[in-house]
Specification:
Elements lengths: L16 H14 L13 H11 L2
């Protein structure tokens, strides 16, 4: 997908991100690790990407 405000960036996202997040969180909790926030798209990333692209 291409985010609306950052057409230069392409994202490859899981279609069921919420279910994937829950499964990942549960499995990592069992072994004592925090959720991998870096592995999932977050809304603020679009604004940050726009800023970085406009101000390299």
């Amino acid at each position: 997908m291409t985010p609306p405000h950052v057409p230069e960036v392409r994202l490859y996202l899981a279609s069921e991100a919420h279910d994937l997040w829950l499964k990942t969180e549960e499995e990592l909790e069992e072994i004592g690790l925090p959720p991998p926030f870096w592995a999932f798209a977050w809304a603020g990333g679009q604004g940050l990407a726009r800023h970085v692209l406009d101000h390299p």
